[in-house]
Every structure is written in C-alpha cells, then in structure tokens.
C-alpha cells in the first residue's frame, strides 16, 4: 500500500513490489495481455459460461398450447397480397388498413416527413406507418405488447403472418394487455423511430409529424406502456432456421428472459436458432467451441459497429425489451432440402404464426416488468452466456499495464510537489480535447446542412481531415526543460485512456473491447519505451490506422478497387452519422471526441526526449530541497 505522505514529497518511492513491476513493465505488460487472452479463451468455453434459463416463472414459457389452426385465413391473406398488391407502398398500406377494419381492429395511420439534411435523399417525401390495436378484455389498457412488421412488397409473407394472427387475436377474450400491430413504412428504421417518438411524446428534431396540430405529438390511437416487442422480418414460406437479432443502440440488450423465451419457442416449433448469423446446434449440449468463438466475435463487431442492425435496435432505445425474428429461407437444392427435412429443422408460415402466438401469450402472462434476469451479458450460444461478473475481469487485465505505467510516470515526475511546475504540459495537453470538440461540432453543423454534399465529402471530412489534424499534432510536442512536464503528460495519457475504456466497458462492453484492441497496443508500447526510435517504430507499427488497414486488406471483397473502397467507406460513415442524428448513437461522438483526443495526445508525446537517468535527477532534486531547508 502506497502511503500518502510519500506520494506528496520529492522522496516518493513506490513499494518494493510495485517498484519491481515497474522496473520490468515490458514483460509484465506482455504477461498481463497474454493472461487476458487465456482468460478470454476460457470464459467463452463450456466450462466458463453459464447455462441460460428463464427466471421469470410467470411467463409459463412453452407450457401454452397454441390454438391457432386457421390456415385457410393465412392462405387467403397471402394469396390476396400476391395478387392485388404491387410495388406501390400505398396499395399495401390500403390493403392492411382494409383488412384490419374488416376484423374489427382499431386502425390508424401515422404520417410524417423527415427534416432535410445532407445525408438524406428525398427527405420531402411523405411517409406513413399503419398500426392497429386489439384492446384487452381482462384489464384496463395500462400495458401493451407490440408486434412490428416491415411494410414492403418483399416482406408480404411477414405481413400475412401478422394479419392472420391479428384476426385470431381479435376473437380471443383472455388478453390482459393491448396488442399493437405496427406496420412500418418500407421497413425503414427511421420510420420506426418516428412512430415510437410520437408514441412516447418525444419531439424528434429531424422528424416532423403530419396531420392535426403540429404541436400535438400524440397519435390518433394510443395503448398502454409497451412491456415487450417482437419484430417479424422475413420473406419466403419455408425456413431452415430463425436468426435472433437483439442488439440495440449504444450497447443495450434486452432482458435475457425474453431472449430465452424466443429460443425455447423456436426450438419447440421444430427448427434451430442462429445468433449473429451463425446457425447454432439444437439442444442444451452445445459444446462446439469454434462456433461459440465465431458467435462472440461476430456479436462484438455487430454490437459495436452495426448498432442499428434491425428494427429491434430502434425499439430498445425507448426502454422496451425487443427481439427481431429473421427467418432464413431453406435452400432450393432438393438434396439439401431433403437432408434438412429429415433433420426436422424445416418450418413454414403456419409454424411461424403459432410461434408468435406462444410468444405473445407468454408476455400476456407476465405479472410485472422484466427484472429477474440479466441485462448485461455476452451470448455464446442460444443456451450459454457470459455474465457481466465474468467478462469484466478481462478489461481489468487489459487496462492493468496502463495503471502501472501511470504509477511509474508519477514517481518519475517527483510526486505531487511537482504539480505546480507542469503548467506548460497542461496547457499543451488542452489542445487535443479542444480540437476534438471543435471537430465534432463542425461535423454536426455540416451534416445538418442540406446543401452539404455528404455522400461526396463524407470520407474527406470524417476520415481524412482528422488524419491531417493528427499530423499537425506532431508539431505541438510536450517539450520543456523540466522533465516533470513530460512525465506528467505521459501520466495523464495513461490515466485518461484507462478511465475512458474502463468507464465505457461498464455501459458498452463490445465497443470498449474493440477500442482496447485498437488503442492499447500503440499506447502501451509508446509509453513503455524510453528511447525515441523504439517509440517511433512501435508508434507506427501499432497505430490504430495500421491495424485497421491490415484488417480491411484481409477482407477479400472490400477493396477490390479504389472506387469501390471509397464508396463503401462513404456509405459506412453516412450510416454512422445517420444513426447519431436519428437514433442518438454514440459512435460518432466517441470517435470524434475522446478517441480523437487520445490519439492526438499520443502524437504529442511520441517525440519527447526522456533518455537520461531518472535516479540521478531525483537525487539532485532531493539535494536541492535539503539545501534550501538548511538555509531556512
């Protein structure tokens, strides 16, 4: 334990154990990161994970016997949709409205228009969602259950399933909650955002509701508080497996009970689930380590860089537990289809309607909000997961070298008595966060202007301009006759990076882990080496841009040509900007703010000259202080 009386004096020295670790900081850092890798390999194995189970007994999951048997009604809707609905959205919208009215379901349209901005095309076009509400019979409509469906011609099978279930649900008398059937215009995530913003009385700055009073944010029809939601997003009539999409914006996840409920009902229907596009094995005894590792890696990438992957991602922004069911069409190859049929994994639209019935009826049994199960977890397979208590030690092992480096630089600086002399370093260190804040504000201003050609200048503005600014920071190094300034800058960088990644991991673990893999190699190698040329080599070899380019070049279909690479980068940046404007995603401010500021600060210290012997400097300072005391 470091005693405070030593930290605040020039004679401050670390305890022997910490001093031993600091003297061998290079091997210690490598060992800690190797230990982190071993721990990650273990924690996603069958021995390091926990079995997933439904902890909310009131759901009565799987005990409900599905009663829907009106296949003729499903065939009728499917036949009518294929025959009468063309490519025009108005035809599909009118058909849904008429069908719901014939059932006796309360139905309304929600019209809106997007505010013009640089990254939108045809923002002046009026859009409209259709929604109907089946009122509860057994209780006051204080709560609701939502079923969302993309409203476009390529998803008419999902529309037919929703209409068939709505017709069945209207004739039942056991509903304790309202059932809301939401048909989203074009399946667009912004259209879903518009409806949920109005439903919750939120005025979205980039969406204008149409019809009625412009200041009235309430919908024509309104249900109770939504306790759970399902999204049907599939096309075709025969499916080999069902993909569960549950990632939400900014690292949020649905309650595990809802996810486990979907897994149980999918397997009860006779098929298998896939997680993040990886088909899983059926049953509880899933010990395929390679598949588990692939699922975890894809999940980290999807949750960190593709936050708005489904309509469920948008729904989760409003505190609603939601899961999207995206069915994979069975292959047309007769031999493979016959093999799948014998393995009992083929399901059709009839099974899908029954699956939805079981899922909605389970939520109808719920006595209170989801609260028994986990909200922070990493899903390894449909039946196994890693809880927050077991994956957070991984971040501790990754960030430990930064803390040791911070302690080393603190004692090299001379402790707290030298804080009064580090104002030059502090002044130059303020440049990085101020420039990062200005850069973020510049992007907000330009992208919000409809005259700005975002699709042409997205890469120069968001990618090339910060690279140029980072180069300029090489010309603003932390240099001073007093070496305490340099050590303070290195100390502040280590603490800043550790606090940023550590706090981010508490709310968005996948993004924190991804940023750790990009930032830590360069930061630690730059801080470990005292010799300038070693630092320069490590700085450029482990630069985040070098690692990113290496990953991009290994992607076979990403950069076949410079034009294709440019367009893909541009579209990716536009998606990130759009997610920030419409769905309050953190990606743009995180990369433009703290990540950019930390990279700029590393550029400032990489050329610092710190090759002298520190023990001699400390002894000279101690002698000078003792002489002053004697004179006094």
UniProtKB/TrEMBL annotation:
It comes from the Eukaryota. InterPro entries: Gaa1 (IPR007246). Keywords: Membrane, Transmembrane, Transmembrane helix. Pfam families: Gaa1 (PF04114). The chain crosses the membrane at residues 25-44, 385-406, 426-446, 458-478, 498-521, 533-552. This is Uncharacterized protein.
């Amino acid at each position: 334990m470091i005693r405070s009386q030593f930290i605040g004096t020039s004679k401050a020295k670390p305890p022997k154990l910490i001093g031993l670790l600091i003297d061998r900081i290079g091997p210690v850092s490598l060992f800690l990161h190797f230990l982190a890798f071993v721990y990650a390999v273990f924690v996603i194995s069958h021995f390091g994970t926990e079995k997933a189970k439904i902890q909310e007994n009131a759901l009565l999951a799987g005990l409900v016997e599905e009663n829907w048997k009106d296949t003729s009604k499903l065939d009728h809707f499917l036949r009518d949709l294929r025959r009468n609905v063309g490519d025009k959205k108005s035809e599909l919208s009118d058909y849904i409205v008429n069908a719901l009215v014939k059932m006796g379901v309360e139905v309304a349209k929600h019209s809106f228009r997007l505010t013009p901005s640089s990254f939108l095309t045809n923002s002046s076009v009026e859009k409209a969602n259709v929604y109907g509400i089946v009122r509860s019979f057994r209780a006051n409509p204080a709560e609701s259950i939502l079923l969302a469906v993309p409203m476009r011609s390529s998803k008419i099978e999902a529309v037919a399933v929703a209409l068939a279930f709505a017709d069945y649900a209207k004739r039942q008398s056991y509903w304790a909650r309202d059932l809301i059937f939401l048909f989203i215009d074009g399946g667009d995530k912004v259209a879903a955002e518009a409806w949920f913003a109005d439903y919750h009385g939120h005025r979205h700055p980039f969406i204008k509701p149409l019809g009625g009073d412009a200041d009235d944010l309430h919908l024509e029809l309104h249900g109770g508080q939504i306790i759970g939601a399902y999204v049907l997003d599939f096309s075709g009539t025969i499916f080999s497996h069902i993909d569960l999409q549950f990632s939400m914006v900014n690292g949020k996840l649905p309650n595990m009970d809802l996810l486990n409920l979907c897994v149980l009902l999918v397997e009860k229907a006779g098929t298998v689930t896939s997680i993040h596009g990886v088909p899983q094995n059926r049953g509880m005894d899933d010990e395929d380590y390679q598949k588990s590792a692939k699922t975890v890696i894809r999940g980290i990438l999807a949750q960190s860089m593709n936050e708005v992957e489904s309509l469920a991602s948008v729904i989760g922004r409003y505190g609603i537990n939601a899961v999207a069911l995206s069915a994979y069409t069975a292959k047309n190859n007769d031999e493979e289809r016959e093999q799948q049929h014998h393995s009992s994994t083929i399901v059709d639209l009839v099974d899908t309607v029954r699956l939805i019935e079981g899922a909605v009826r389970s939520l109808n049994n719920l006595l209170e909000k989801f609260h028994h199960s986990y909200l922070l977890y990493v899903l390894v397979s449909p039946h196994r997961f890693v809880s927050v208590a077991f994956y957070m030690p991984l971040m501790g092992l990754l960030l430990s070298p930064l803390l040791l480096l911070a302690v080393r630089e603190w004692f090299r600086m001379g402790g707290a008595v030298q804080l009064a002399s580090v104002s030059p370093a502090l002044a130059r260190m303020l440049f990085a966060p101020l420039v990062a804040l200005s850069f973020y504000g510049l992007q907000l201003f330009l992208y919000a202007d409809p005259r700005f050609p975002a699709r042409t200048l997205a890469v120069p503005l968001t990618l090339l301009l910060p690279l140029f600014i980072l180069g300029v920071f090489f010309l603003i190094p932390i240099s001073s006759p007093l070496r305490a300034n340099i050590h303070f800058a290195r100390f502040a960088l280590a603490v800043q990076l550790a606090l940023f990644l550590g706090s981010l991991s508490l709310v968005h673990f996948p993004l924190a882990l991804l940023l750790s893999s990009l930032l830590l190699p360069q930061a630690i190698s730059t801080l470990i080496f005292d010799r300038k040329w070693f630092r320069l080599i490590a700085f450029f070899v482990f630069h985040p841009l070098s690692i990113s380019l290496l990953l991009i070049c290994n992607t076979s279909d990403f950069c076949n040509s410079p034009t294709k690479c440019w367009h893909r980068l541009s579209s990716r940046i536009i998606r990130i900007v759009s997610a920030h404007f419409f769905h309050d995603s953190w990606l743009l401010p995180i990369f433009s703010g703290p990540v950019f500021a930390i990279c700029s600060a590393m550029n400032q210290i990489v050329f610092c000259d710190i090759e002298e012997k520190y023990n001699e400097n400390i002894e000279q300072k101690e002698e000078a202080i003792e002489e002053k005391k004697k004179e006094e």
